[in-house]
Amino acid sequence: MDNRGNILDVALHMFSDKGYDAVSVQEIVESAGITKPTLYYYFGSKYGLLEAILEDGFSKLDQMIGSYIDEDSNDVREQLFKVAKAFLTFAVEESRFFSFMLSLMYSAKGGEPYKAVKPHLHKLYQAIIDMFERSSSQLGNMNGRQEQFAMGYLGFLNQYVFTFSERNFFRDNDLREHINDDDVRSLIQQFMYGIVS
Amino acid sequence: MDNRGNILDVALHMFSDKGYDAVSVQEIVESAGITKPTLYYYFGSKYGLLEAILEDGFSKLDQMIGSYIDEDSNDVREQLFKVAKAFLTFAVEESRFFSFMLSLMYSAKGGEPYKAVKPHLHKLYQAIIDMFERSSSQLGNMNGRQEQFAMGYLGFLNQYVFTFSERNFFRDNDLREHINDDDVRSLIQQFMYGIVS
DNA sequence: TTTTCATTATACCGATTGGTATAATTAATG
DNA sequence: CATTAATTATACCAATCGGTATAATGAAAA
Fold first, then answer.
1. Strand C contact with B24 (CB < 7 A)
2. Neighboring chain A residues of B118 at a CB cutoff of 8 Å
3. From the Cβ of A26, is strand D under 7 Å away?
4. Which of B107, B162, B190 sits opposite A19 (nearest CB)?
5. For site-directed labelling of A49, which of A39, A162, B84, B156 has its Cα 20 to 30 A away?
6. Is A107 helix (H, G, I), strand (E, B) or coil?
7. Does the structure show a pLDDT above 80 at B176?
8. Nearest CB to B194: which of A16, A152, A190?
9. pLDDT tens-digit profile of B154-165?
10. Distance in angstroms, CA of A38 to C1' of D26?
């Protein structure tokens, strides 16, 4: 099996379970069935391993969103729907990475883990901001509140995923495996109600 | 000055800034201008210090919510308004603790920091669940979804605070100091729209 | 077969981790 | 003044931290 990929998998699993700082390099290499120099050969440092995990996960997320987003259409509701669909699908398919991403998003701003996600989050925000920008004709004058909308929208989706996964966590189930289109549309409706008023 | 209180202040400041695991006991006592045995005299362990911080902060939050909540009234909108007002006021007055609480809420479920907040969060959820329970006559049959509502509502409020503090973070401002009642009512309206439909 | 180069195992490093034993200090009480 | 009990400073501990020097391995190319 591919060592590099295996290390990434194992480390993501442990980071999302116990947190980046609480997991030692020693634990990782033992779980992965390798030794320390192998890990340092591939990633250079523990922080480098974290960066590689984020690079990997966010590129999948970008790809997922990119495959859904349509540059031609500028219908707000349809755009929001596609982003939500992509986002929620990703949250189900890569649930481990998603919950890890969430924990980093809310982690201490002065810490190393946050420093590592920050550029990825900014890039993600920017993509959503651009989408709102394109749809500005339908939303009226946003007075530079696109950024606030983007953060609100992503937070809204995150909250949805978190609530459901948390509820299932207490009940020892997995995340629902299928994203229902009607549920997503109802979600969009709820979010837009807060905007258009 | 009171040593115990000073340690709590300094530790909360550092934990919220860099994260629990990333802050060493040594750093804390140096910042607080004391020595290690003093800290261990009061709190027994680093984890004990964390527990004391949470005990302190959550008791303030409970008190804040308790002072707003009205057991007699069972009007949903009014109850939700009071909880929101209390919550947001607390987020402004104890912004440091609030952001630290948020980071713990989303932190790794298998980690020690989460283990420490878990009971406090459950208690908080329970208070909100009870509120929905009392208001069930107005919301129709909730089919045991009170728990989901409670989580959704708290997450909704958290997201609101997070979005604003994050936006201000990028702009190097403080959180707005005054909670506007109209903003809160509009927030409730937005949340309820998602429920009653 | 020999050379080459990516990959891995053994063993180690200084620094820091959370935590503590012990005695000195301080303030209040008898 | 003597005694007690809370509080603090000095100095230390084993264990673990992230990271590395060095040489052995493996397979592929010459």
1. yes
2. none
3. yes
4. B107
5. A162
6. coil
7. no
8. A190
9. 988 998 888 877
10. 15
pLDDT for B150: 87
The shortest C-alpha distance from A12 to chain B (Å) reads: 12
Q: Residue A162: is it exposed, middle or buried by C-beta count within 10 angstroms (0-12/13-18/19+)? A: buried
Distance CA B50, CA B56 (A): 10
pLDDT at B197: 44
Q: Nearest CA of chain A to the CA of B159: how many Å?
A: 6
Q: Is the CB of A27 under 7 A from strand D?
A: yes
Q: Which nucleotides of C are covered by protein (CB under 7 A)?
A: 7-11, 16-22
pLDDT value of position A173: 46
Which amino acid is residue A25, in one-letter code?
V
Q: What residues contact B123, with CB distance under 8 A and at least 6 apart?
A: B58, B62
Establish whether the CB of B36 is closer than 7 Å to any nucleic acid atom in strand D: yes
Q: What is the mean pLDDT of each run of 10 residues along chain A (197 residues)?
A: 88 97 96 92 95 96 88 80 93 95 97 98 92 77 76 88 70 58 86 60
Q: In chain B, which residue's Cα lies nearest the Cα of A115?
A: B18
Closest nucleotide to A46's CA, by C1' atom?
A: D18
Which domains occur in chain B, in start order? 1-44 (1.10.10.60), 50-192 (1.10.357.10)
Contact assessment for residue A36 and residue A19, using Cβ atoms and an 8 Å cutoff: no
What is the rounded distance in angstroms from the CA atom of residue A147 to the CA atom of residue A153? Answer: 10
pLDDT at A172: 40
Binning chain A into helix, strand and coil, the percentages to the nearest 5 are 75, 0, 25
DSSP string, B138-182: HH---TTTHHHHHHHHHHHHHHHHHHHHHHHHHTT-PPPSS--HH
Q: Predicted confidence band at B1 (pLDDT cuts at 50, 70, 90)?
A: low
Residue B40 has a CB neighbour count (10 Å cut-off) of: 15
Question: How far is residue A114's CA from residue B103's CA, in Å, rounded to a whole number?
Answer: 11
